[in-house]
Amino acid sequence: METLWQGFLEALHLLLSGDPEVWAIAWRSLRISGLATLISVALGIPLGTYLALRRPPGQRMWLSAVYTGMALPPVVVGLVVALLFWRSGPLGFLGWMYTPRAMVLAQTVLALPVVAGLTVSALQQLDPHLRWQLLGLGASHGQMVWLLWREARLFLLAAVMAGFGVAISEVGASLMVGGNLRRYTRVLTTAVVLETRRGDFARAIALGLILLGLAFFVNAVLTFVQQRDVEA
Amino acid sequence: MTEPLLEARDLWLPRRANWALDVPYLALYPGEILTIMGPNGAGKSTLVAILAALLPPKRGEVRFRGQPVDFRHSLTYRRRIAVVLQRPYLLRGTVEDNVALGLRLHGFPRKERQRRARLWMERLGILDLARQSARRLSGGQAQRVALARALALEPEILFLDEPFQALDMPTRMHLLEDLRALLQKAGLTAVYVTHDLNEGLALAHRVAVLVEGKLRQVGTPEEVLAMPADCEVARLVGVETFLAARVTRVEDGLLYLESHGLPLMALGRAQVGERVRVCLRPEALTLWRADTIPRSSARNRIPGRVVTVWPQGALVKVVVEGPQGMRLVARITRPAVEDLELREGQEVWVTFKASAAWTVPE
Q1: In chain A, what is the straight-line distance between the N-terminal and C-terminal CA atoms, in Å?
Q2: Cβ of B85 and A232 within 8 Å?
Q3: Over the stretch B210-219, which tens digit does the pLDDT of each residue have?
Q4: Number of domains present in the structure of chain B
C-alpha cells in the first residue's frame, strides 16, 4: 500500500514537472489512437449503414462476423498483423513492422467492428418507416442516409467513443506490432507495461493516470456534444 | 374518358406464408380521392408503399401518366408525389424546419422554401408554432406539421396512410374536416388509407376494399355501401345481419328467396337455386311491437324475439332472434326504444324493404 501511495506521489511530481518523455508518449498515443479511430469511423459507419439498411445476402452471417469482431482479442490481431508485416510475410516489403503505421492498422482492426456493430444497432433502433417517410418526401438515397445518421447521432457518437476506447486502451497488439521502441512506437499502454516490469511504479502510475485522463478528456468532449443534443 | 394518373397492374407481393398482396388492376384518376379500406393486416400499407414506389412488388407494374415507374430509380417519380404516414416522423429542429424538409430535399431555394412553408403552416393553422421545437408538439399538432410538410411540395398525388389513426376522436374529426376542405380546394389527387368506415367515406370519391391482400371491390361509396361484393366487404362497410337464403325466383330485377322457412325479397345478381346471403345494414331494419300491425310498405316482415338491448352511444343495438335461429341486428335511437318499451324477451316484428336487402354469394 505504501509503495502504491509513494508511486502515486512520484507520479504527480513527474506530471507536474512536465517530464518531456512522458508527455511525448502521451501525444504519440493520442495521434496513433486518434488516427485509428478516424479510419474506423470512416469505414465502420458506412459499413454498419450498409449492413443495417441494405440487407445484403447473408446479412445475419455478416452481422455475426461484425459482432464477433467486437470481442477480438488484441493479441490475436497483433499476431495476424505481425505475420502479415514480418520481413518474410506477404506485406513485409512495405517495411511497416515496428512502426506507428502497423500500430494504427492493428488498432483500426480492433476498433472497426465496434464502430460498425454499434452503427448497425444505432440505425436499427430507428423506426423502419422513417426511411419510407423520407423517401416519400423525395429524398435521394444519399439524403436519406444523411438524415438517418442525423437522427441516430447520439448513438453514433457512442460508437465513436467506444471505438476510441478500444484503440487507446489496447496493449497486446501495439506491443507485438510496434515493439515498444523508445521515442518511436512507445505509447502509454506499452510504456505502463514496461515500467511495471522494471519496477518503476511511479512512472507506470504517472503514465496510467495520463492514459485515464486522456480517455476521460476525449470522452468528456464527445459526451458534452451528445448530451447537448439530448437537452435540445 | 380521362386517362388515369396512376395505374397498378397485376401487382403481387408475398409478405408472409399463405399471404400475398394481389391487385389485378387499380386506377387513380386526376382530381379524385381514392380511399383504400380494409381491416388491419389487409395489406393497405403495403399497397400504398408499392404505389408510392417505396417498396417494389415481386410482379406487376405501376404506371404514372402512362409511363412505367422504375422502382430501382424512382427518385423522379417520388419527387412528384408525397407521402404522409401513420406517425408524423418529425425530425430534430423547429416546426418550420420540418415543414420545409421536403422542399429542401427537392432543392428549392431558401426564399421559396420559406414562402411555401409559411403558406401551408398558415393553411393548417400552425403558423404560430413555426419557431417551436417539433419534438414538443401534441399528436394533432404533429400530424398537422406532417400534412403541411407533404402539401408544401404541391404533389401530383398525395398518399395518406392512416394519418389520423393514433389521434383521439375529436382531434381526428377536426383534422379530417380540415383535410377534406384543403383537398377539395386544391383539387388534389389523393390516396387515403383507413380501416375506419366513416373516415374513409367522408373523403372518398371512390373506395377500394382490400381484404387479406386481395382487392375485393372498387366503386363509389354509395355502390360499396349498398352493393358489397361479398360478406367480408359487407361486414367492413357496416352490415351486421347475414341471412342464409336460397333463390326461388328472379323477376323484375328482384330476387325471391327462402330464408329460415320464410319468403324474402331482395336485390342482387343470382340465379334460381343459388345459395346466397342476404346482407342487411342495422339502420335498414325497423322494429314494431308484436301486438301492432306494421304500418310499413316494407315487403319483408319477420316475427322475432328481442335477445339483446345494448345502448351504444346515441344508438341502441337490438338483436332479434327470428324463426329457426335467424339472427337480426338493428340499431335504433334511444327514444324509439322507449316508445316500443323494448326489453329482452319481448316479441316484435322486424321489417325491411327489398331495396335495402342485398344478396352476396354464400
Answers
A1: 47
A2: no
A3: 999 999 999 9
A4: 2
